[in-house]
Each structure stands twice: as C-alpha cells, then as structure tokens.
Amino acid sequence: MASVSIAHLGPSGTNAETAALNCATWLQQKTGQSALLHPYATIAQTLQAVAQGETQLAVVPVENSIEGSVTVTLDTLWQLDQLRIQAALVLTISNTLLSRATQLADIRVVYSHPQALAQCQHWLRQTLPAAQLVPANSTTEALTHLVEDTTIAAIASERAAQLYQVPILAQAISDYPDNCTRFWLLSLEPSPGGDHTSLAFIVHDSPGALVKPLQIFAQRDINLSRIESRPSKRSLGDYLFFVDLEADTRQPAVQSALKELEAYTETLKIFGSYSVIPI
Hints:
Elements: E1 4-9, H1 15-31, E2 35-40, H2 43-51, E3 57-64, E4 68-69, H3 71-79, E5 84-92, E6 96-99, E7 109-112, H4 114-119, H5 121-127, E8 132-135, E9 152-156, H6 158-164, E10 168-170, E11 180-187, E12 196-203, H7 211-218, E13 224-231, E14 239-245, H8 252-261, E15 265-274, E16 276-277
Parallel strand pairs: 1-2, 1-3, 5-16, 7-8, 7-9
Antiparallel strand pairs: 3-4, 3-11, 5-11, 6-9, 6-10, 12-14, 12-15, 13-14
C-alpha cells in the first residue's frame, strides 16, 4: 500500500511536525497506510502544497488557547477554498527557552515563531525585559540563529532541543499552564463527517446583517463553538466571519440552516465536518 504524504510547517522539531506525526499514527491505525512527512517553510506554503497536489494532506495550526486564532491559516484557507478539513487534533504546547548561554542575564535577543513569542510575552517581559524579540517562520528555524553566540536564545520545544542538541536554559515558560493548539488535517478530498463543522461567510452590507445568520443556528439549537471576524481585504470595515458548529452537515437541521444561510450571505464557504483525533 502506497504511503500518504503530509505537509507541515518545518523544519523538523516544530509543534506542527509533532501534530503531523500524531496524524500519521492515526491514519496508519485507521487505514493501514504509512505516512511521509514533508516540511515547508511557512504555513501558507504548507496549505498551498496540498492545494497544488504536491502532497495529499496538510497539517496546520488554527487556534491556540493563549494567543487565539492563527490568522495566516484562516486567511489562506479562505483563498484556497477547495481544501476540506479531514480531522482536528489538539496538542499540548510546552515552550522552552534554548540557548548556549549559561545564565538568563546574558540573553540579548530571542527568536521564535510569532505565536510562541506571544504565548510567552509576560514571561519574557518579566524575565528578559531588555531582550529584543525577533519573529521567525517557525520555532525550529529560530534555532539556526543560535550558532555559538551566547547572547541569543530561541523559544522552541523540548523535542527540538533534543534533535538539534541545544541546551535548555528555562522550561515551561508559557504564560499559562494550559497551553494547547488546535490543528487541522486538510486535503482536496471531501470531509468524512463528524461532530464539528467549520465554515466562513461574508454577509450583505445591511443593518443586523450578522444577527440574522446567527439566529438561523440558534432557532435550530445548533451550538456555535467559535465565531471570529477577519478583514475581507477588499475595503476597510469589510469583514468575513469564520464559524465552528458542534454539528454535522449531514444532519437535516444543519442542512436546513445552511440552505437558509445562503439567503443572508454574499459568499458562503463550507470547509467540512470532521471529528477530533484522540491523542
């Protein structure tokens, strides 16, 4: 049986790779197929890889319990609307400070992915108030800046520290102990169905335009677990809305709601119904 290819944010050692490894294990248990992981430099490139057929699947972060939504994932998914969610996965995130310095007082610069920097912003402000914070494409890419400079540090995972043999200077530096990230597994195939559904829409520009779509779900007792606005990028003040439902599009009530929703939206995109993979 041929292997399935999975794109993820790389290089090796990122949280996205850990999520992809968990998805690979789940797929092997479910289908018997092994998986080959393919790292990409950015989240956008990861999604484009599966949209263009370079890989069969992609694993991307969509929401963090501390920092909120990963906007590049949402924006790119809206643009690449042929992608469908196959499953979700929630991964516990443990941020650590890696450096070749012997003490925190030596650190002058800290590199990491913007999400990781944001998840540790209070710790950084209190512990390294004078350090310059520099964003990188991924937590693992940040390690390339360390070399032998003992004034530089990077925020990454313990697994990355082991893979690249970089000392851990401080552990568990996230601002809140319950730090977890939700990932989506996507492909060009139809979604399999499940107890979660994700969609997005642009409403008509009129008074109460958002209230009416929300009432459609409330009237049918369909719970919304998340709603978030993003700029449509067409003009200032023009937004699109991402919504997660705790329901399956195969249910008659959901089908009825979506049909009615079309009348109140300018554009409606349904990314699929799916389940959460247990770890």
